[in-house]
């Protein structure tokens, strides 16, 4: 038994086994049947999960695809081709719902993307009490969304809401917040950001803490201030996490439903908070038009699938 | 290398294909519709005359929903008593009640039930569900089964109410309750504002004047309240159109009819109350439940409602009956009317249909029995004295009204104005929910935007409703 060498062999780096690229794992040779037979016990354990996924996840997805091309409201199921898509396209709310959803997404990216990152930067600067601050930031996420929304409903109330009380102290006239077509969506985004920023902040914080300290030291030696350190060290080092979170946020915000549904009753003043998912909900549960609901869902799915593909690629890049 | 990739692709393709086929097969399982027991629903399996009452020797079991849940102790006790009483006449019929917590009928659940054909033999619906039920081929035509032998008081049931359950002269249900929208008032606030609570406002001008006085009390009190979210805004806009003799859809059912002088009058009046008088409160985007909470806590003077809203406020919100009164809908030309009923699942055997009708007749359409046993209702601590449900005409009405007054648990005179001034009922428009969704924008525009362009709101909504109607 030889003692381990403490000196680094310069060639060792080249001899280190390369990690296979994700997705390039080779399946066992010999066909599907053989693969199944090779490990019967393991596949037996998988059956439960597979059945659960099949019934509660894959089947509904397939069904949704089928429904989008079917008419089901006459007691019989009939194939109607693209009719449901035409119905959805001709709906006067279609354009408005997409505009509102994109507007929500844009606002959510400005607020919901920047605020957690800046919060993480600030927390990261603290030497003491980081755990306490992390808990504080994450607390709103622990609240049930409905409770948070009701809280904001009271804060925003134009009659007796706290926000208008605070404005009144500074002599600023009371605002309508959720009840003004021009400010309703922004108010929804602010509430949504407060409710959901905890998770994002913790992820950014983890990414920030992964940045090697010597890079900051080197930047400081070069005379960089805080902003230049953030710009030249922090952002490049957390670039992939930032990109990943950006995509995740786009995917999540495009599916916004709970906040406008509970804060403004869904449509909002003059329909200013009608979102695509709310429209899907209306089709399915208020108009009993499951075909149209599925068709609009499919349109949204195609769009989000593009983002998801991008997300997967980025995710793979971060892993490597 | 390339071959290996090709093999992998082929294998993956095979797996995908097998999965897709399996799932498609599964999906196909879900699209088949089945009839309950193979009967075609037209009585072809029957060996008896549809018009004859159920033979007491024939054993049948029927499932029926909307049995009161355990939380509603008094109602459940009455249900069980009624089943026992009914079984004295029909010992051969087993009633299997099904109850759901909360509302009997939640539209999403109801729709799913119809699609899956999983409704019980006797199922609860709103009048407005008839089209949807028939679209799903869900209800039995019971015209041949309902006559003066099976439903002895049939001639005394308000034909308007029965009309709501008919399509092409075929009857599809029996009513359990009905409502007509009126003006619900908070008597305490009326008195505080120096108004006479026994004479609720009868015109929209009077409503405006009264609302102004009530809002003048201060402390965040609103004079008049309206919905503007979750399709309820459009629902009430429709009610206001009806009240002034207008309509939201023309007689042909293909064109919007609210962008006219009446529509403008409704919109301008509401806008003036909200922004000029400041008598409608600052908080808007309200939906069903919000106004009830406000009026129950003496924060609202008036709103359009049906009498059963009062029961909700007393039982769920702890309000007192004495605090409320009701008048007819201001304007009084027409009012939104609706109600609840039971339908019978298409495809069940004729004997089951007869058993169902016998039970429905005993429980819901017999004066002095079932839900009209007011003496028992009072003894069980449940409300007696609300003006609705009131399905009756002629002698039945006289008898039932007298019993209500005799066993009243609330000041019946508070509803006198509503009772003495009946307004003709008018049903909801076609594609009601979709039209209400569009009209929500008109209501929310008026009530949340001081500078709302009413002409533009109405013409935009008109275009959109025309599109909705064209998509039928």
From TrEMBL, chain A:
Keyword set includes Iron: no
SUPFAM superfamilies in the record: MetI-like (SSF161098)
Cross-referenced InterPro entries: ABC_transporter_permease, MetI-like, MetI-like_sf
Gene3D superfamilies: MetI-like
Membrane-spanning parts: 40-61, 102-123, 135-156, 184-207, 240-258, 290-311
Record keywords: Cell membrane, Membrane, Transmembrane, Transmembrane helix, Transport
Domain ABC transmembrane type-1: 98-311
Top-rank taxon: Bacteria
Entry membrane topology: Multi-pass membrane protein
Subcellular location as annotated: Cell membrane
Primary localization: membrane
Stretches for region Disordered: 1-30
A Pfam family the protein falls into: BPD_transp_1
UniProt record similarity statement: Belongs to the binding-protein-dependent transport system permease family.
Protein name, UniProt field: ABC transporter permease
Source organism of this protein record: Streptomyces antibioticus
UniProtKB/TrEMBL annotation, chain B:
Protein name: Extracellular solute-binding protein
Lineage summary: Bacteria, Bacillati, Actinomycetota, Actinomycetes, Kitasatosporales
Signal peptide positions on this chain: 1-27
Pfam families in UniProt: SBP_bac_1 (PF01547)
Organism for this UniProt entry: Streptomyces antibioticus
Region feature Disordered, mapped onto this chain: 31-53
DNA-binding among keywords: no
Coiled-coil stretches: none
Record-linked SUPFAM superfamilies: Periplasmic binding protein-like II
Keywords: Signal
